[in-house]
Every structure is written in C-alpha cells, then in structure tokens.
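Last lecture ended with a question: if I hand you only a sequence, what can you say about the shape of the protein? Today we answer it with a concrete record. The protein is Adenylate/guanylate cyclase domain-containing protein. Below, first the input exactly as provided, then the predicted structure, then a couple of comments.
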Amino acid sequence: MISTRYVRYLFLTVTVWLSFFITFQISLSYVLNDFQNPIDSLLFLIIVSFPVALISGIVTETMDYVMFDYNLLRDFYFLKIFLKSILHVIVFIIVIYKVAFFFSNQAVELGIKTTNAFKFVTTENGFLLLLLYSYLISFLVNFLRQINQHLGHKTLLNFLIGKYRKPKEDNRIFLFLDLDNSTTLAEQMGHYNYSSLVQDCFKDLTQVIYRYDAEVYQYVGDQVVLHWENTPRNKSYLVELFFNYESVLLKRKEYYQKKYDVLPSFKAGADVGPVMVSEVGEIKKMIAYHGDVLNVAARIEGLCKTLEKKFLVSQHFFESEFSTPINIDIEYIDTRVLKGKTKKIDIYNVIKQNNQPIFI
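The predicted structure:
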C-alpha cells in the first residue's frame, strides 16, 4: 500500500530537484552570458529539467521509503541525513549524465541549441560544482525533513508561516492509544525496562503511523495521541491503524517476550468533531488543540479498563458514513455522562470479526 505520505513527499522531492536543476542552469547561464537566444535556452531547460527531476525524485523517494523511513539508521539521525544526502546526490548525478544527456540529444535533433551552461557540466570544474551544489541542497532538505519528522507532519511549515498564531477552528479525528496494564508492568519490570518497552512500542507504531497518514499530537508517558482531518477515508485509516498495530506487535511477539517477558497490547478511545487550533508557548512553542473532542476521546479510552474493552469510540464517530477493508462489528456498550460533562453520550465497541493478524 502506497501511503499519502509517500505521494506527498514524492511531490516535494520532485519539486526540490526541479527547482535545484533549473536554478543551477539559470545561474550558470547568467555567469556564462548564455542568453543570446532566450527561447531556445528556455525550451532546452524545460525538455531536460522535467525528466531529470521526475526520475531523480521517484528513485530517491522510493529508496527512502523502503530503506530509511522504517528501518535503516532510524536512531542515528545525523548519520542518516549524511548517508541519505550522499545517496541522493549519486542518483541525481547518474540521472543527469544518463537521462539529461539523452533528452539533450533529443532537443538538438529538434533543432534546439544546447546551452553553454549544460556544456559546462561536462567539464571537470562543472562536474565538481554540480556535485558540491547538489550535496548542499540535498543535505539541507534532508535536515529540514528530519526536523519536520520530529516536530510532526506540517508543524514546521505551520510555525514558519504562522498559520496558527491566531486560533482557528478545525474538524479533526482524535485517537488516544494507551499501553494496557501499564501500572502493573512498570512495577514488575522496573523503570528502566519499562521505559525501554514503551520506546520499542512507539518505534513499532511509527511504521503504522506512516502507512495511515496519521499525525502525532503528543506522547504522554505510555500514551500517544494521534489525529487526522475528519474525512471518511481517515476514519477508515484510524480503524485500520489500530488493528494493524495489534498485528505488528503480534508479529514481534518473540522479540518482546524474549526481551521483556511480555507481549504489549494497547487500548484506544476515539472521538470526532470541531476543535480550536493555536500556537502556544514562548520558551517552547507547540501547536495545541483545544475542545471537547480531546476530553471525550481521553475519557472513552479511560473506560476501556473499566468495561474490559480494547477499542471504544463515541457516537460522533458514526455521524457520517465510512467503509473499511477490515471486517468489523460495532457493539453498542452504554449511554453515559462522562466525567466533566453534562450530556449523555453513546459508547460503542469496535471489534475485528476474526482473530487472524492483518498487515497491509
């Protein structure tokens, strides 16, 4: 399954390589006074630049998606950025000297004159300049992407453009995931082993978060709060994420039992509705969400232990229709007044129909 995250980053990567290659060529053309025939120069630039950017973007983003995003060097951030940048540049250089030259020959056959800037790339000095420039750009982009990954999807961009300096209303889906029997586990395992267990669980959750395009709002102890824009597709993603995460933990059963003598499991609560979003803090800034949706989702998740259920949602979750490839049963549990609330709300249990592990 190709996630929307892959498509989004692919578009970003292609745009970056396209901007880089065009900027590099225009800068060289300016230095080399290569604008005697601007129409030919522009046509040549278009014919050569787009296939180079597209192929470079597809190869590098697929390489990241398969190798780096889930497994390789996920704990060694600087080394990861360094190696990714080198590999990206190698791909880009190979594409230029294979694909770009092919399309440049096609342009010549169409009667379009090759630019002096492109000819300069074939020289030793031109190659070294291209190598240095492309590595600096690649390193900067990978560095910013790593920061964005740590802050959360779109958070860096939202900070830079000041999107939430004034509170804005949004419609979101929130999922509270909490480690089951956490108090007992912490007492039995000790602080160090328990902390290591939580760390491993959240690492395994990361790949599922990527697959279902979830955004991490915050980690609180052994709890993680995820959210999506409120759409039918994302409601399906939320359901799929929970049950697929169960399958991931089950696949890693041998690892967890050998290292911690336990198979971790999570309980979850979800709610849907309007929230206010704003940028808060001065010493440490964050994008904060305020509204009943978070309170209801947290209270519902807290009921899982009392009701001995694993995945509870509110009635709001079914106010608009959605479909999911997972066969599920929806079981009405109770109508309750949640703590801190005055209105009653219907609580439902979401159950996967069979016990076979799933992983898409």
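Comments.
1. Strands lie at 168-179, 215-220, 223-229, 266-280, 286-290, 311-314, 328-337, 344-352.
2. Confidence is low (pLDDT under 50) at residues 356-360.
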